[in-house]
Every structure is written in C-alpha cells, then in structure tokens.
Design a protein that fits this description.
The protein has 9 helices and 10 strands. The protein is an alpha/beta fold. The protein has 2 domains: 4-232, P-loop containing nucleotide triphosphate hydrolases (Rossmann fold, 3-Layer(aba) Sandwich), CATH 3.40.50; 240-277, no CATH class. The strands form 2 sheets. It has a 6-stranded mixed β-sheet with strand order 6-7-8-3-9-10, with helices on both faces. A hairpin with a 2-residue loop joins strand 4 (59-64) and strand 5. The chain starts with a strand and ends with a helix. The site of adenosine-5'-diphosphate has 11 residues, from helix 1.
Length: 277
C-alpha cells in the first residue's frame, strides 16, 4: 500500500475561476522522504491541505494509506494519519504549557487519559524536547517551538508528516534542529513530505518534485534536480549555492566532481583538489 496516492487531482477555491491544482498525479511510498519545491503560489500548501482533507477533494482522487479523502466519513482516519506542521511557530500553540499543548491533539481524538501521558513522553522524546515539558511554549526559541509543533503532530501517531515551510521563519540553528528531528523521524519509518523553498533542504530527500502553476513539472533525485541548473529559474527556483560555485569552478577548468551538492561536499572536494596541487 502507498502512503499517498493522488490521481488526476484538480482543485479550485470556491468563488475562484481558475484551478490552482491542475490534473496532478503523485504517489508517495511508505517511508519515503519527499521534498516539494516551487515558487510562491504554485499550489504547494493547497496540495498539502488536500492530502489531509482540510480542503475537499472534488476533482480526481487522493488516497491516504489506501483510504479515499473523498468520503467525508473517512476524514477522521485520514487526519489521524497525516500530521501537519505549518510555517509560523507562533501560530500553532493552543495551550500555555508545553505538555498541555502536545496533549491537545490526542485529547481531541478521544485518546484515554491514561494513555495521554505516554503520548506526551513519546512525542517529547522523539523531538528531543523532554527538558521542556513544563515550560511555557511562548518563551521557547523558534526552533524549539517548531519541535513542539512536530511533537503535537506526533502525539496523534500519524504515519505521514507534512511540513509546510516549517523552517522558513527559523534562524539557521532552529532550522538545523528541526531538520535533524525530521530526518531522524524519517529514518525511524515515518513518511515525510517536506514543502520548502530552501534548495539545500532538498538534499536530504529521497525524491524532489517541483511544482509550477499547480502541476508537477519536474521530479527526480536531489542530484538530478540540482543538475537542471539554470532551467530551475523558469520555476522561480535557484541552484543551491554549493552547486553554483561548483559549476563556476568547473567552467574555470578545475577538475571538480559533479557530485557536489552541499557546502560540506564542496569544501571536501576543494581540500582534495588543493592537496593534489
Ligand atoms: N483560501 C484561498 N482562497 C482563494 N485562493 C487561494 C486561497 N489560498 C490560496 N489561494 C491561491 O491558490 C494559489 C496557490 O496557493 P498556495 O497553495 O498557497 O501556493 P504555495 O503554497 O505554493 O505558495 C495561489 O494563487 C493563491 O493565491
Ligand atoms: Mg504555501
């Protein structure tokens, strides 16, 4: 069974005339780490909301773990399986104290009180936030707040986690904290759909798709996508800095490996080159 199976999905907002998702088909495997790239307005958030049933699927079909979102009676199950984390760390907290915030999701789903404590333990551990259980959420850093938002999503025990630009408002340290938690969760088996416009975040994905005007215009491994070079600008995206520098060095005649995607790989590659000189 697939984590998510989308067939010929089209969507327009009520009272709007144009479609913002256009005949889109996509399959996400269980355990996959999928990165969704695309410029503002390309339909990424709309797609995320359709997948977990926050928006109605009227045209085409979406199945989450085999369950269609078309039938309203299924939406409870779908939402339980798809945890969502949004962009703004300040908008996602519903309670003052961290543990109450994490308890909110499972409580709403009717998880018995005796089990809620276990869910909080599990979610805090998974996000490396155990030390903050009794802290006030609003006093945490952006990265910590997003980890609590992830913990809140995890407390519902979803099999799929969708992050909609969840690192966009964080400083570099906060981004690193959140990304390492997400990577670990994926390694432990959770399916991740990460929406971002940071190209360098796409490096950790198994597969990258590029959305443009409600369609998937490219997909491939991070390496394949970054190799598109200047073609990316047609979709409002930029080549990652490390790849740009690598390309420039190649043009200048340096025998630098084509596999360089990240700044770490670039510095290693440069070290190797200069040792040879
Ligand atoms: N609630 C809404 N009502 C009407 N149009 C919307 C709404 N939300 C988004 N849109 C429009 O849908 C398109 C896709 O938006 P969105 O899915 O938010 O893109 P992205 O997340 O890639 O920036 C945009 O043209 C946007 O203006
Ligand atoms: Mg968006």
């Amino acid at each position: 069974m697939k984590a998510v199976e989308i067939k010929n999905l089209s969507f327009k907002y009520e009272e709007e005339t144009s479609f913002v998702i256009n005949n889109l088909s996509l399959t996400v495997e269980k355990g996959e780490f999928l990165c969704v790239l695309g410029e503002n307005g390309s339909g990424k958030s709309t797609l995320a909301r359709l997948i977990n049933g926050l928006l109605p699927c009227t045209d085409g079909e979406i199945k989450v773990l085999g369950v269609s979102t078309k039938n309203k009676a299924n939406l409870y199950e779908v939402r339980k399986n798809v945890g969502m984390v949004f962009q703004n760390p300040d908008n996602q907290m519903v309670a003052t104290i961290v543990e109450d915030d994490i308890a909110f999701g499972p409580e709403n789903l009717g998880v018995p009180p005796a089990e809620i404590g276990e869910r909080i333990d599990f979610a805090l551990k998974a996000t490396d936030m155990e030390a903050f259980r009794y802290h006030q959420g609003q006093r945490l850093s952006g990265g910590q707040k997003q980890r609590i938002a992830i913990a809140g999503a995890l407390a519902v025990k979803p099999q799929i986690l969708i992050l909609d630009e969840s690192t966009a408002m964080l400083d570099p340290k906060g981004r690193r904290e959140v990304l390492s938690v997400v990577k670990k969760l994926n390694e432990e088996g959770i399916t991740v759909i990460a929406i971002t416009h940071y190209m360098d975040e796409a490096v950790m994905a198994d597969r990258v798709i590029i959305m443009h005007r409600g369609e998937i215009v490219k997909q491939g491994t991070p390496h394949e996508i970054f190799s598109l070079g200047s073609e990316l600008s047609a979709y409002g995206l930029e080549v990652p800095r490390a790849v740009y520098i690598k390309n420039e060095l190649k043009k200048a005649g340096l025998p630098i490996s084509d596999n360089v995607l990240t700044e770490n790989e670039l510095s290693l590659e440069l070290c190797k080159l200069f040792q040879k000189v």
